[in-house]
Every structure is written in C-alpha cells, then in structure tokens.
Design goal:
Elements lengths: L5 H4 L12 H12 L6 E5 L6 H11 L26 E5 L6 H10 L10 E6 L6 H12 L5 E7 L7 H4 L3 E4 L5 H14 L3 E2 L1 H11 L3 H15 L2 E2 L1 H8 L4 H13 L2 H13 L4 H21 L9 H10 L5 H19 L4 H14 L3 H13 L48 H9 L6 H7 L17 H16 L3 H7 L3 E6 L2 E7 L3 H9 L1 H12 L4 E7 L1 H4 L8 H11 L1 H10 L6
Parallel strand pairs: 1-4, 1-5, 2-3, 3-4, 6-7, 9-10
Antiparallel strand pairs: 8-9
Helix pairs in contact: 4-5, 7-8, 7-9, 8-9, 8-10, 9-10, 11-16, 12-16, 13-15, 15-16, 17-26, 20-21, 25-26
Length: 581
C-alpha cells in the first residue's frame, strides 16, 4: 500500500474533528438535525482551515436518513478522508471557469441523483469563474431543482459577485489559533510515534499562519528530515525560521547603540544565508511581543514557549510602549523597500541603525519638561508691536527715517507747535516708543545737558562691536528668529548715524531677512544706546576682507549657544546635531 501523507490521513472525518471552526460546525449540525437545509452555501476563508473538508462532510451528512446526535460521532469516509459518493461532484473552479463548463453543469442538474437523496456540487475556488460563467449560473443557483445542493469554497470572497453571494448562505472560516494547531500536532505526533518538543510544535504552528493543513505538511516534512525525532534546531534549519535569540541579541544592541556591532550583526545574517524578509517579519513579531508584554504586563498570551515568555517579561521593561509602536511602524515602512531593493543588505543596515538611534519617548519628555521650566522672555515692546516677524512691516510704528546725505542739520530751536488735527495726533501716538529695561536703566543716570542729533552720536565702531552680543540678546527678547539671523552679521563701520552691518556673501537669505526687519532693529538699538541710530546691511566677502577673524567661528558660536541654552544643548545631544559652515 502506498504512503498516505499526514495531511490526507488526518483529514477530519466528522464535524467534531474540525479544529477551530466550532461556530460553523454547530450551525450546520443544527440545520441537519432540524431539516433546515439550504440549497446553496459558500465557505470563505484562508487556505488550509477546513473549507473543502466541511463541504465534503456536509455533502455526506445531508444524504443520511434520520440523523441523530450519535450519527455525528461516526465517520462516513475512507481511511484517506475522501467521501465515496457518485452524487457528490467536485468541480475545480480554476480549470473549469468558462461558460461552456457551467452550461454543461446547468444541463446536468436536471437529472435526479443516482443513489442519494441530494446531488451535491462542490465548486472549489469559485472566485476563478469568469463573469459570463457566473451570469450563466445565476438562474439555476436561485431556483435549483429540489434534489440539488451547491457548496462553493473560496479564499478570495471579494472576487465573488454580490449577485452570487446574495443567493447563498455565507460561512466565514477563521484562522486557527496557534495553541490549537500545536495541540492538534501533538496528538498527531503521538499517534504517529514522532518525538517532538513543545518549542518545535509552536514553531511549526506559527509558521503555518493559522492553517492546519500547512502545519500537518510541515510536521510530515520534519519527520522525514529528522528521522522521527524532531529537534528545535533541526526544525529551524528545515523551515528557514530564525532563532528567537537572534532578535533578542539585536534588541540588546539597540540599547547599547553600538554602530560597529550592529553592522557586524547584519553582515553575519547575510553570511549565514538568512532570508532578509523572514528576518524583517521575525523582527516585527519580536517587537510586537515586547509591546504586548509592556502594554498588558502579562506574558501568558504570547504564542511561544515558556522559556521565551519569561525572557520577554524580563526584557520588556527596557522599552517604552510608544517607542515599540514607532519601531513597528518603521519596520513596516521599510519592508517593501527592502523587498524590492537591489542592495537589501544596505537597506537592512540603514533600518537597524535608524531603529537604534531613534530618540526615545522618555528623552523627548525630559526635553519638554525642560522647556516648561525655562523662563519665557518678557516683552518690552507694546502689545501692538507683538506680531509675527514675517508679517507686513507697515504694522510697526516706523521711527523717523534717517537721512544719509546730505548730513542732517544742527539742532534748531523749535517754534511753537501748532494745534494738530485728530489724524496727526493719532500718527504721533503710533510713533510713541515705550521705554525698555535697558533704556530705563540708562535714563536713571544724569541726563546730558544738551541732546545729540543723529549726526552727533558718540559711538565708535569698537563700542558697537563690544556691545553687539548684548544688542542681539535685546533683539532676542522680542524676536528669537530675527536674532538668530542677526547673529551672522558683523558691525563694519559707522556713517553719520548709520551703523553698517556686514553679511558674508554666503548668507544672502539671512541678510534679506534682517533688511526686512530694520525698523524693529533700529528701534531696539536706539533704545539700547540711548541715541537715534539706524542700521544698513551690506554684503562683502568675509575671507578677503579679513572680517572672519573679528568674530567667532560657527563652531565657537555653536558651543557658546550650547553653554548658554540648556534646552538647545539637550536638543543637540538628543538629535546628534551638527553645524554647517
């Protein structure tokens, strides 16, 4: 006698032997017992979960006379699990998908069954039928002869027309849980004298992805590979499944952030010939298990052995739930890229390094707390001047426009001011400047006997350079972004009451932004120096004119900012920022 594979030998012969589909077998048993038999059924679900087997058993039971509960305990099939009945006709929808085959079927349904009560047509993979074939089946399916029953099976229910679905009773088969598959494999192994441990059973069950037929075939394959004594290492080798220890090794490297070890880790994966997609799927499953334990605090629901359940419980405390969600999101995004990449090793290296260096939620929360504790600057300008730095400049109150040439005339004794109109009064109020903290401090000192005009400012370029950092800080109190752009400028010279601010030719964008906001800077600088001054932006080559030596280098500015701004320092350290010259 020829060998019968385990998938056929252990095909269920009764409804009670069908694993994981109790909601379907119970419904069909009650329908048979109460004689509520439908004329058309459609079974939908993934592969290897019992659709065709259930269809064959239903075709067998429907032709039995006066069924009782006891009858469901006795099989009506041969040793291979195949029903032997001339009135049960199985049709492969993939190879008989044309309209001619369906026309022949429609002609044959008129003939009465040979020996049974019903003539049952089982059409497997019914979604493969053509549109014309479905249309030819509609009328017969809706009003078939009383002795005919149709049972359809499909793995892609969405491809079946709604006109067909509406004429059938639909049953959705679900994936079989991993523990149920492992338990069934354990019974089969015991009956077939196959030695296998619990970890190997769960390995096969997870690899089968909810299909008992696939799991039984894998058990048969491993039995031949190992000679009846299946070990975990042999099962991994034969099925191409990666060791769970490999993923725990990477999660430890993530905590250490050792780039060299991570690159060596990826190289070892490719040297051993592991499939990169299997690795990606295993890594996603690994982080999912960590997430389940971190979220629930329990490990008993993990589909793995007791040893790895304890290990997941131990390692889950090292990861935050939101971090694990981000890791899973990154893995899913990169899976298709790695699958179609011409250099999968490089893509995998980038993914693992990105996972390792992704800022953690805890670090970002610390940064947010630091931001909350940082005192906010108190504005010195009136509320009307608190506007976005990119808004229209005419909203600000413009100071008197300085005249460059000819030089302003000396101070003249003013004549009595005539009475102003309401419009002129409002215009003068707009130009009113409130004193800042710096100006108040300067006003406390004895005031000079005679005020100076713009042409008589007593400032030298050296004094402006010396006070430049303080001026930038004063601008920062109102507009942080504007101060950052102004920081790239260097006081170059003074012409009358005009202070020239030089910008390198590589900083055209910064210069343009400062130029748009000169009115704000003029007001702040005039209040700071307690005399009417204005700025003018000029462009030059810092290297050729030797200006570079007068100011700090970008690296020195960078370090200076880090030392003065704790929040900025934390951001630089957390996100590994660099300066760009």
């Amino acid at each position: 006698m020829s060998y019968v594979v385990l998938a056929r030998k252990w095909r269920p012969k009764t409804f009670d032997e069908i694993v994981g589909q109790e909601h379907i077998t119970r419904t069909l048993k009650n329908a048979l017992l109460h004689n509520r038999i439908g004329h058309a059924y459609i079974f939908a679900g993934p592969r290897g979960v019992g659709k065709t087997t259930t269809a064959r058993l239903l075709a067998t039971y429907v032709n039995q006379e006066k069924l009782t509960e006891e009858d469901f305990l006795h099989p009506f099939a041969d040793d291979a699990g195949d029903v032997q009945n001339l009135d049960v006709i199985e049709v492969d929808g993939a190879s008989n998908r044309g309209i001619d085959e369906i026309r022949n079927l429609r002609e044959n349904v008129r003939f009465a069954p040979t020996v049974s009560k019903y003539k049952v047509y089982i059409i497997d993979e019914v979604h493969m039928l053509s549109k014309e074939a479905f249309n030819a089946l509609l009328k017969t399916l809706e009003e078939p002869p009383g002795h005919v029953m149709f049972i359809f099976a499909t793995t892609e229910i969405h491809k079946v027309p709604l006109t067909i679905l509406s004429r059938c009773q639909r049953f959705d088969f679900k994936r079989i849980p991993t523990p149920a598959i492992a338990e069934q494999l354990k019974c089969i192994a015991a009956a077939e004298s196959i030695e296998i441990d619990e970890e190997s059973l769960f390995l096969i069950a997870r690899k089968a992805e909810g299909g008992l037929r696939d799991a039984t075939s894998m058990l048969d394959q491993l039995s031949s590979f190992c000679g009846g004594n299946i070990t975990l290492e042999a099962a991994r080798e034969a099925l191409g499944v990666l060791d769970d220890e490999l993923f725990f090794q990477y999660s430890q490297l993530m905590l250490q952030k050792d780039d060299g070890q991570i690159l060596a880790y990826v190289r070892k994966i490719f040297e051993k010939g592991h499939d990169v997609l299997n690795f990606i799927q295993g890594l996603a499953e690994h982080f999912r298990n960590l997430l389940l334990v971190a979220a629930t605090g329990e490990e008993h629901h993990l589909e793995t052995s007791d040893y790895y359940r304890k290990l997941y419980k131990e390692k889950a405390v090292n990861f935050h739930q939101k971090d694990l969600l981000h890791y899973l999101d990154l893995i899913i995004q990169h899976e298709s890229q790695i699958k179609y990449s011409e250099n999968p090793q490089l893509m995998l290296e980038l993914l693992l390094l990105k996972l390792a260096h992704k800022p953690s939620v805890v670090d970002i929360q610390e940064l947010l707390e630091l931001l909350k504790k940082t005192p906010q600057p108190v504005a010195s300008a009136p509320a009307a001047e608190k506007k976005n730095e990119f808004s229209a400049p005419q909203v600000e109150a413009p100071p008197p426009a300085p005249k460059i040439s000819p030089p302003p005339s000396p101070v003249q004794v003013k004549e009595p001011v005539p009475e102003k109109s309401p419009g002129e009064t409002f215009s003068s109020l707009k130009n009113l400047k409130l004193p800042t903290a710096k100006s108040v401090q300067k006003e406390t000192s004895p005031a000079p006997e005679t005020s100076k005009t713009a042409a008589e400012i007593s400032l030298s370029i050296d004094e402006v350079i010396k006070e430049w950092e303080s001026v930038v800080n004063a601008v920062k109190q109102e507009k942080i972004a504007l101060a950052s752009f102004l920081l790239d400028g260097v006081p170059k010279g003074i012409k009358g009451n005009i202070i020239e601010i030089a910008f390198d030719k590589t900083n055209e964008f910064h210069m343009a932004h400062v130029q748009k906001n000169t009115r704000t800077i003029n007001r702040i600088m005039s209040a700071y120096f307690n005399q009417e001054v204005a700025i003018e932006c000029v462009q030059c080559d810092f290297r050729s004119e030797g200006i570079r030596e007068q100011i700090k280098s970008p690296e020195e500015k960078f370090e200076s900012l880090k030392s003065k701004e704790p929040v900025l320092k934390r951001i630089i350290d957390l996100f590994d920022c660099e300066t760009l010259d």
